[in-house]
Write a structure and sequence with these properties.
With 350 residues, the protein is mostly beta strands. Helix content is 0%, strand content 37%. The chain is built from no helices and 24 strands. It has an eight-stranded mixed β-sheet with strand order 3-4-9-10-2-24-23-22, with no helix packed on it. Strands 16-17-18-19-21 form a five-stranded mixed β-sheet, with no helix packed on it. A hairpin with a 3-residue loop joins strand 22 and strand 23. The protein is globular and about 55 Å long.
């Protein structure tokens, strides 16, 4: 997910909607080493290389010594675009073209200073054995597979990576680690400060099993960590339960999940009526605003053993593509594309 594609936000822990009073745009700047290089790139269009999509996930991470705001960010799987369908062994698969197939998903530190958002450092996400994670699709039949074929720009099949990730969200915890959400799996991943994976959870390993019925490549999107250590994450779109609900489901699921016990509570987030099709609904980010959870009022009977709690309807969801993701208690930020430049936007609220 590119920065401009964040299309929804959940804000955990307050009872009334905040009012946007002003905002400020921060041009996103990075060093030459942080641009994506590839021999197939048109240098007339990308003289420095492609911009790395810092901002797939973004979270407040404290302050620098001079008081500047520090953010932690994660990229997605890397540049890609829809390709033609591919036939393999009499089966047809959707494809994605990867202009930079060697790209490795990264975690970055961004500092807001002098009216700029500066990428001061970045590092690849590492497998437990120390090798860098790729963003290539997971093989068909495995947990997290999107059934996509990865292609180069000359339409050569790249192959798969059974450990591939498509990160979407990031959140620091009290121990200095980071929790990542991934929309392939869905996966929830705990990494240390070096970016190395400590634990990786999936519907086959600790996460709610029902999450496996996500729309392909619309797994876990936003993620945040509560003071009690619980991880709150949501599925980007509606679930297709037993291949029967992709047109009729009216909620997205939000999970308050305990990584120690792997117990969880399901919250229902009603989708807006503005989508032409229910499975067009997508959510973007979730962030902790204070130390309380939403009101847990049951609004409808349980369905097939599931217990739903409903979010307060006054959550701040802004229309269009400029959607906010919150950091801090009284600040918001979101990302927009301004011509060929990316910008971070901080919003003061009251």
């Amino acid at each position: 997910m590119l920065l401009s594609a964040i299309i929804g936000t959940l804000c955990v822990g307050f009872g009334s909607a905040n009012t946007v009073t002003n905002y400020q745009m921060y041009p996103l700047t990075m060093g030459a080493e942080q641009y994506i290089q590839n021999a197939s790139l048109d240098k007339s269009q990308f003289p420095q290389g492609m911009n790395t999509a810092y901002g797939s996930g973004l979270a407040f991470d404290g302050y620098e010594k001079d008081g500047s705001i520090r953010l932690v960010s994660v990229t997605d799987r890397g540049p890609n675009l829809d390709g033609l369908n591919v036939k393999d062994n009499n089966k047809t698969y959707p494809s994605k073209i990867f202009p930079a197939p060697d790209f490795k998903p990264q975690i970055a530190t961004i500092v807001l200073k002098d009216n700029k958002a500066v990428v001061v450092s970045s590092k690849p996400i590492l497998n437990p054995n120390g090798t860098a994670v790729t963003g290539l699709p997971i093989p068909s039949g495995q947990v997290g597979s999107s059934n996509e074929k990865a292609l180069t720009t000359d339409i050569t099949v790249i192959g798969y990576d059974e450990n591939g990730l498509d990160p979407e969200g990031i959140a620091p915890d009290a121990d200095g680690n980071f929790w990542l959400s991934d929309e392939y799996g869905p996966f929830i991943i705990k990494v240390d400060k070096s970016g190395k994976i400590i634990e990786k959870f999936s519907p086959a390993n600790g996460l709610p099993k029902i999450a496996s019925q996500r729309t392909p490549n619309r797994g876990a999107e936003g993620v945040t960590v509560l003071p009690n250590g619980h991880v709150v994450f949501f599925i980007q779109s509606i679930l297709n339960l037993n291949n029967e609900t992709k047109k009729t489901a009216t909620i997205c699921r939000v999970f308050d999940w305990n990584p120690k016990t792997q117990q969880y509570t399901t919250y229902a987030y009603p989708i807006e009526a503005t989508y032409k099709k229910n499975n067009d609904a997508k959510l973007g980010e979730v962030h902790l605003l204070d130390r309380k959870l939403p009101s847990r009022k049951i609004k409808k009977p349980t369905h097939k053993g599931e217990l739903f709690y409903f979010f307060n309807q006054q959550l701040p969801i802004l229309p269009g593509r400029r959607q906010p993701s919150t950091f801090g208690v009284y600040e918001l930020n979101y990302c927009v594309r301004d011509g060929n430049r990316w910008s971070l936007v901080a919003i003061a609220t009251e």
